[in-house]
């Protein structure tokens, strides 16, 4: 009798709660993935805010594989400040199933972008053979107005709307299989003020010669994903990020973003590399480091507050990396006055060089 009573009590305590549950529909906690933002740690530089941006993105309204709101959620979760959805004007392979015009992707994405405080730029991609190739119009009023037969007319319409014109993937092998050339038509566009920036990073590629074009011609240095599928299916987001353009804006607003891009205050960032004007790279590098010099010693304690490693060298005897968000102790050999930061590109074949005194004073 005692055994039966004990068994009944044990069974009630163990199984009772399960029996008491709703047998028709019992929610399972912890199954849904929570949406959260992963902040990218990059410092502001004196006078400007560092905005993380991607100005080349596709949806099902051209040849992308996702709905416009997915692009907003991805960008917000990945820590971006601004994006532009730039669907092709001339290439809409899903058009049989996805109706709408060239403004539809922006209009669908805008409410969620506003809710998540993500700056959404209205844009579109003029998609032609080479030359001129593919060019994005950004900060547009009406993308439909760019749908013109003559590419010059389409590009001039971007300018008429006060938009920013970006030459996309100039070294894309489908259009320039053996080289990366600034062609006569690009020179004509440049002389008319109809190219404002060039991608030096695109998707999984980078074009060092395009960096030289930008710096020699005072054009904005751009880096973008050109993403078509889900970003998590393209990039290792746990320990890396999509290509992006860092824009140094006076404020975190669309107006300041546009002003900064026309003023060429941009740096391209991807795969542990940054490329852009020396002044901006130096400012970002210095803002990223907290350096303590030990008294009467060549020993330094360096803390990196940026999500970006820095690879330093000065001859064969002095090479080290300051890890992203890491801290190192180094001893600087005598007679070394300058160091090269090998992964900060100020030209196609040159990296940022900085005087050690600038860091320690």
- The ordered string of helix (H) and strand (E) elements is HEHEHEEHEHEEHEHEHEEHEEEEEEEH
Shape: globular
Summing up helix and strand content along with how strands pair, one would put the structural category as alpha+beta
**Rg computed from alpha carbons, rounded to a whole number of angstroms:** 26 Å
Mean pLDDT: 92
Q: Would you mind describing this structure in some detail?
A:
By secondary structure, this protein is of the alpha+beta class. Helices cover about 25% and strands about 25% of the residues. The protein has 10 helices and 18 strands. The protein has helices at about 1-20, 70-75, 105-115, 150-160, 185-190, 210-215, 230-235, 255-260, 280-290, 355-360; strands at about 50-55, 80-85, 120-125, 135-140, 165, 195-200, 205, 220-225, 245-250, 265-270, 275, 290-295, 300-305, 310-315, 320, 325-330, 340-345, 350-355. It has a 15-stranded mixed β-sheet that branches. A 3-stranded antiparallel β-sheet has the order 12-13-16. A hairpin with a 6-residue loop joins β3 (about 120-125) and β4. The longest helix is centred in the first third of the chain and has 19 residues, at about 1-20. It is globular and about 70 Å long.
Tell me briefly what this model is:
This protein is α+β, with helices and mostly antiparallel strands and 361 residues long. The chain contains 10 helices and 18 strands.
Break the fold down into its secondary structure elements and pairings.
Elements lengths: L1 H19 L28 E9 L10 H10 L4 E4 L18 H12 L3 E9 L6 E5 L12 H10 L3 E4 L16 H8 L5 E6 L2 E2 L1 H10 L2 E5 L6 H4 L9 E6 L4 H9 L3 E5 L2 E3 L2 H11 E5 L5 E6 L5 E4 L5 E4 L4 E5 L6 E10 L2 E6 H5 L1
Parallel strand pairs: 1-2, 2-3, 5-6, 6-8, 11-17
Antiparallel strand pairs: 1-9, 3-4, 4-5, 6-7, 9-10, 10-11, 12-13, 13-16, 14-15, 14-17, 17-18
């Amino acid at each position: 009798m005692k055994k039966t009573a004990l068994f009944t009590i044990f069974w009630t305590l163990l199984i009772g709660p399960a029996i008491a549950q709703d047998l028709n529909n019992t929610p399972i906690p912890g199954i849904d993935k929570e949406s959260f933002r992963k902040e990218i740690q990059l410092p502001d530089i004196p006078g400007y805010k560092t905005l993380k941006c991607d100005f080349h993105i596709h949806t099902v309204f051209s040849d992308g594989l996702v709905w416009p709101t997915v692009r907003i959620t991805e960008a917000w979760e990945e820590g971006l400040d601004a994006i532009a959805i730039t669907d092709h004007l001339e290439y809409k392979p899903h058009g049989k199933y996805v109706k709408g015009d060239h403004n539809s992707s922006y209009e669908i994405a805008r409410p969620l972008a506003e809710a998540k405080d993500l700056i959404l730029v209205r844009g579109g991609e003029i998609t032609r053979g080479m030359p001129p190739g593919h060019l994005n119009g950004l900060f547009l009023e009406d993308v439909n107005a760019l749908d013109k037969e003559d590419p010059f007319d389409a590009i001039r319409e971007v300018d008429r709307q006060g938009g920013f014109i970006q030459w996309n993937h100039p070294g894309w092998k489908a259009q320039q299989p053996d080289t990366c050339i600034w062609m006569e038509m690009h020179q004509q566009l440049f002389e008319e003020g109809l190219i404002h920036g060039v991608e030096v990073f695109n998707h999984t590629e980078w074009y060092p010669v395009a960096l030289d074009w930008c710096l020699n011609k005072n054009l904005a240095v751009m880096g973008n994903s050109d993403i078509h599928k889900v970003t998590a299916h393209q990039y290792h987001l746990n320990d890396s990020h999509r290509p992006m353009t860092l824009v140094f804006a006076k404020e975190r607003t669309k107006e300041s973003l546009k002003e900064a891009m026309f003023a060429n205050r941009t740096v391209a960032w991807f795969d542990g590399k940054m490329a852009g004007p020396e002044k901006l790279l130096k400012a970002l590098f210095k803002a990223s480091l907290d350096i303590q010099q030990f008294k009467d010693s060549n020993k330094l304690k360096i803390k990196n507050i940026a999500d970006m490693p820095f690879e330093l060298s000065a001859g064969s005897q002095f090479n080290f990396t300051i890890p992203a968000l890491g801290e190192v102790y180094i001893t600087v050999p005598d007679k070394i006055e300058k160091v090269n930061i090998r992964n900060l590109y100020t030209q196609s074949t040159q990296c940022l060089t900085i005087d050690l005194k600038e860091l320690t004073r």
